Description:
Number of domains: 2
CATH superfamily of the largest domain: MRG domain
Strand content: 5-15%
Distance between the termini: 22 Å
Domain Chromo: 30-89
Helix content: 40-55%
Mean pLDDT: 74
Radius of gyration: 24 Å
Shape: globular
Low-confidence stretches: 1-12, 94-109, 243-250, 317-358
Main location: nucleus
Order of helices and strands: EEEEEHHHHHHHHHHH
Subcellular location: Nucleus
Strand order of the largest sheet: 4-3-2-1-5
CATH class of the largest domain: Mainly Alpha
Pfam families: MRG, MSL3_chromo-like
Number of strands: 5
CATH topology of the largest domain: Enzyme I, Chain A, domain 2
Keywords: Chromatin regulator, Nucleus, Transcription, Transcription regulation
Largest sheet: 5 strands, antiparallel
Amino acid sequence: MSITEEGSPQRSSMLFKEDEAVLCFHGPLLYEAKVLKAELWTEQSSEELGPHYYIHYKGWKNKWDEWVPEERVLKINEENLKRQADLKSNVEGKKGGPKVGPGAGVTPRSVEERAASKRKKEDQAAKEEEFIKRPEIKIPIPDALKVQLVDDWENITKNGKLVPLPRSPTIAQLLDLYRESIKSKKTVARDSRADDIVAEITEGLKQYFNRALGNVLLYRQERTQYQEQLRKLQQVHEGTAHSTGNSRNDIAGKTMADIYGAEHLLRLFVQMPNLIAHTNMDQDATEILKDHFVNILNFMARNMKELFLDYAALNNPSSQPVSNSSTASASPANVPPAGTVAAGEDVDMKDTATGPPA
């Protein structure tokens, strides 16, 4: 999502400030929380505009940190604390509808409406509880790629070295190479269904990437570059591009998976467990996905020199020269800096995918 840069004058109009203790709606209930970030989303390409806050729920794991609009956040005061208690009592069924005395106008319709409202709240609470109880997915990342993640974070956020676009190979090309490598390893008659599954998963990865890129995969320093790529795609799709020659044909029909490369695909794998947690996939389906994701990550680790950018070749901060396929770096949009991931340790990507440490 598009946000204003840090230090924008518009931040002074925010109702809540960073590090402020607040109450925040999550489902039907209010929870104690803390504002980690406060930003005003204004760019027209954003689906949601206005004040937004990055919230950490008190006593919850960091994986539940999230961006919320201002209407979900309340000041901590006596009135709102009472509202919090009332909502909790209603959901838990400890408090029924308002008491009705003689002459209060009780009708079958009013009783039915209250019963329907209670059922709705109970359903919402049940759905939230079911979501929280879903099994977490852990995807082991090869040690070499963990180093890439940290290098990517450091070069972009500390050294101002952006990944030049378009990349070569792109994500779409990388996944095609992976599919070909799978086919070339088979010495017996191939199972056509197995090939179909690999094709479905790689195609699904591209779709996930296109949807997630602008929302959760970018560092703040990369947003201007992303907006420029988005503008080019939109101009071509709307038929308003001013480019000449073959340049317009080069971008027509493309998506972000045809522009970005291995560095940003690796960040998607860090976010993927959190994304899958919001789907209705059963345990068997998620285990199948996990196995394929591990295979793709191992493929990327074996071919780092061909797939990843050589940051050492980028001499000027924020420059975008022609990319060189060489050993490089990639990271989840909020991966911790060096030293927080131990070699040989499986990364619980739902815990590290979103937000700074509490």
